[in-house]
Amino acid sequence: MRFLTLLVIGSLSLSTASADEPIPLTVVSFSAPDSAHGRRWVRFKEKVESTLGDQVALNMLTGGQVGTEDNMLSSIRRGRAQMGILSIGALAALVPELSLLIAPFLFESEREADFVMDRYLFKPYAKLLATRGITLMKWEDGGWHQMYGRKPLRLPTDLTNYRLRSSATEATRLFLADAGADVIVLDFGDIVAALDTGLVDGGVTTSVMYRVAGLYEEAPHFTLSRHAFAPGALLANKAWADGVPPDMLAAVSAAQGTMADNRQLVRAEAEDSIASLRAAGVTMHELTPEERRAWTDVATPVHRKLIESIGGEAERIYDIILEGKRAFAAAEYPATFR
């Protein structure tokens, strides 16, 4: 799921504001008011006002005025925006190695993903982003990527020549193509029309976006494949983060909530969406162990293709991921590693 949320701390640089002037703090988001992210922004506003008061001029704009994630990222890098929450898919345009996080069947569970990302990947990715003028502050969670279609999609053979929408993310495109699908890259906003006209017959998204966009009306089969994690990141313009008073940066970060709390909100919303979809008559398909193995057989070679396509630090990062997965397995199942 693309994270369509951006925090903008003014359009003025700190160097042009006097010490007595409040620092502009504008929050821009595509989050629906009744969504997990929308409710989170309400709490953010309350916390910033209570902790920073007139040190900041808070302006909450949650109607998507900034535009696309590409625009958001450009704004942060140029210093027109100072902070933002973006999807890994969008950030991979800046740091291609981030695409590894959404490699198919990379993580077996949320617990494993959290463990590896927090303990093994935060620092390596923070260093890569820092070289591009970005400070990584926190990981964000967008849920699991799942598959949907007009028919059941339980095995890779079900995708043969089947028209599926993909985002521009390379990991997703490679995975669907290797499974035999006829892959069509579309922006999320174009999916409903594409389903209506028959341009596509299904695709990949999270349970929340599948429900919110009403995709189930044209494609009522939803496969709980959990085949790719969909993380994002809370970022800051590095020059701004290095120059803002540390207590203010800490207060803004704290107002965002902890990674654990934010993950819990998103995951609860995902479960609620699945329950709502069941009630609406959507056919849910839970993969059997045998079916899941068939998918992982397709997915495993995609990892190598992705590493070779990305280049750069991809091989080193992938080795760190595998190291983290081994450490998680040892912690979860110690008897196996005696």
Brief account:
45% of the residues lie in helices and 21% in strands.
Question: What would you say this structure looks like, in words?
Answer:
The strands form two sheets. Strands 4, 5, 6, 7, 8, 9 and 10 form a seven-stranded mixed β-sheet that branches. A three-stranded mixed β-sheet has the order 1-2-3. The protein has one domain (5-337): 3-Layer(aba) Sandwich (D-Maltodextrin-Binding Protein, domain 2), CATH 3.40.190.170. Helix 1 (36-52) links the parallel strand 2 (23-29) and strand 3 (56-61). It has helices spanning 36-52, 69-78, 88-91, 110-130, 170-178, 191-197, 207-212, 238-243, 246-255, 259-279, 289-310, 314-332; strands spanning 5-8, 23-29, 56-61, 83-87, 134-149, 163-166, 182-185, 202-205, 221-237, 283-286. It is α/β, with parallel strands linked by helices and 338 residues long. The model is unreliable at 1-17 (pLDDT under 50). The protein is built from twelve helices and ten strands.
Give a topology summary.
Elements: E1 5-8, E2 23-29, H1 36-52, E3 56-61, H2 69-78, E4 83-87, H3 88-91, H4 110-130, E5 134-149, E6 163-166, H5 170-178, E7 182-185, H6 191-197, E8 202-205, H7 207-212, E9 221-237, H8 238-243, H9 246-255, H10 259-279, E10 283-286, H11 289-310, H12 314-332
Parallel strand pairs: 2-3, 6-7, 6-8, 9-10
Antiparallel strand pairs: 1-2, 4-9, 5-8, 5-9
Helix pairs in contact: 1-9, 4-12, 5-11
